[in-house]
Write a structure and sequence with these properties.
Blueprint (H helix, E strand, L loop, with lengths): L3 E7 L12 H13 L1 E11 L7 E5 L2 E9 H20 L10 H18 L8 E5 L6 H7 L5 E5 L7 H4 L5 H8 L4 E4 L2 H13 L4 E2 L4 E4 L2 E7 L6 H11 L3 H10 L3 E6 L8 H14 L7 E6 L8 H21 L7 E4 L5 H10 L2 E4 L8 H8 L8 E5 L4 H4 L4 E3 L4 H13 L2 H17 L2 H13 L9
Parallel strand pairs: 1-2, 1-5, 2-4, 5-6, 6-7, 7-10, 11-12, 11-14, 12-13, 14-15, 15-16
Antiparallel strand pairs: 3-4, 8-9, 9-10
Helix pairs in contact: 1-17, 2-3, 3-4, 8-12, 9-12, 10-11, 10-15
Length: 463
């Protein structure tokens, strides 16, 4: 069996397992353990000069190889291009794109660096699986070094529609490089259609019904591989956590009030200000919920050095102050807002206790919080998921209350519907969603992608 090599911007720590690691890390580690493999990525460290050879650590039959970056490389590659150019582009926020040639050159430079450090570690029959928007050009850089292995790519965030994607300077180079992969994976059929539309209209290419593409003189396959969660493990976490000390403290603090919960990284793509306004709309339109419902928004800070994110934090603090000032009582604050992260097992308990899960991003590749919320529920008395139509999870979980996050009144109405939904309807919706989560797990997602990558020979030069 061929060894699996995974490349991502950050790697899992060699000792992280189970509840300590995120769901994606758990799934990728299992895939590596089955075949034996290598996980290559940035160490998280900054060095002063040209990065040295990779540092290699071993855990069982898995090797972890990491390299540092210089401050200039980190700033150009990660801060200025990946997160200030590609991230807003892929989340349809064209007004926030900051493009510069120097950042773009830094992005290409770091991809070449990764290729140069990874290539000597590869064996001839390795399957290479590269993850996310940081590494669109990595296969092209590896091919330039003579690497002939089968290489796959999975995009965890949305691929924007043609009209949005073409706003990116040098978009043809980016998409041409993407065609150097043998297999390109997306979260949803919408992303796959965006890819096909671009290749056909801008790349002069073709995409067959089975996903085979020919464009830019290259040939490969593309497909939709909706990512799942480690469903069984998350159910166990929630069952164990609901009677734990954190949930007990939360239960006591709520004093019998019902809980509406949102859990998101602090990012403008998550639609948290609109969600706050929706909760305000609920309290305005349905005064019977005043004093009886508490909305808790957990939003760990990310990219705090970027002004856009600092402005978002100020905006949210303003929303919390206005809502609590207007509706709050001496013994009730309508909104609790926490800029801190919690371990997965604690979140699992919070999800299980919450009557409503709010997952309303303005645009998201999949959003696994939606799936974790469903998995955490009590089968006899489940909560209700309110889910944005612009999250990839809405394709997998249509039994949720699917909403337009830009319509704050619609979202407010959905929260009211969730709070008043009869138990039998809640159970029927939950059972259908759980069937999906049990059938499409993080493990089956990994297996299906790797099997597809290993199968057949697409060839990389079109005939």
């Amino acid at each position: 069996m061929a060894r699996l090599v995974i490349v991502s911007n950050r790697t899992a720590a060699p000792r992280d397992r189970g509840a300590r690691a995120g769901g994606l890390a758990v799934g990728l580690r299992e895939a590596l353990a089955r075949r034996g493999g290598l996980w290559f990525g940035w160490s998280g460290d900054i060095c002063q000069e040209n990065p040295p050879a990779p540092r290699i650590q071993e855990a069982g039959n898995i090797q972890f190889a990491t390299i540092p970056l210089t401050q200039a490389d980190h700033d150009d590659f990660y801060v200025r291009y990946a997160n200030a150019t590609l991230w807003p582009l892929c989340h349809y926020r064209l007004g926030l794109i900051e493009f510069s040639r120097s950042a773009y050159e830094g992005y290409l430079r770091v991809n070449r660096l990764f290729a140069e450090r990874l290539a000597p570690l590869l064996r001839p029959d390795d399957l290479v699986w590269i993850h996310d928007y940081h590494f669109f050009p990595l296969a092209a850089a590896l091919r330039a070094l003579g690497v002939a292995n089968r290489i796959g790519f999975f995009l965890h965030i949305p691929l924007p529609a043609l009209e949005v994607l073409t706003a990116l300077p040098r978009h043809r180079r980016l998409m041409s490089d993407l065609c150097c992969y043998d297999l390109v994976g997306f979260q949803t059929g919408d992303d796959l259609r965006a890819f096909a539309s671009y290749l056909e209209r801008e790349g002069g290419g073709t995409v067959d019904a089975d996903g085979r593409f020919r464009a830019f003189g290259r040939e490969g396959h593309a497909g939709a591989f909706p990512i799942g969660i480690d469903t069984a493990t998350f159910v166990e976490l929630a069952e164990a956590a609901v009677d734990g000390p954190h949930v007990q403290r939360l239960r006591e603090s709520l004093a019998g009030r019902r809980l509406v919960i949102g859990v998101d990284r602090l990012d403008y793509s998550k639609g948290i200000p609109q969600r706050m306004e929706s909760f305000q709309t609920l309290l305005e339109a349905h005064p019977e919920h005043r004093g009886r419902v508490t909305y808790m928004q957990i939003a760990p800070i990310s990219r705090g050095e970027v002004e856009q994110y600092r402005a978002l934090r100020r905006d949210l603090e303003g929303w919390v102050g206005r809502i609590n000032g207007r509706f709050g009582e001496f013994d009730w604050a309508p909104v609790r807002y926490l800029n801190k992260a919690f371990p997965r097992q604690v979140l699992a308990g919070f999800y299980r206790y919450a009557a409503v899960g709010l997952v309303t991003p303005l645009r998201d590749g999949m959003n696994l919080v939606a799936k974790e919320y469903v998995a955490a529920q009590d089968p006899d008395d489940p909560g209700v998921l309110v889910l944005s139509r612009f999250a990839g999870a809405a394709r997998s979980l249509p039994q949720a209350l699917v909403v337009n996050p830009f319509d704050v009144e619609e979202v407010g109405d959905a929260i009211h519907m969730a709070l008043t939904m009869p138990r039998e309807e809640r159970r029927a919706r939950w059972n259908e969603m759980m069937a999906e989560l049990r059938g499409n797990t993080i493990q089956s997602w990994c297996e299906s992608f790797v099997a597809r990558l290993a199968a057949g020979d697409t060839g990389r030069q079109a005939a």
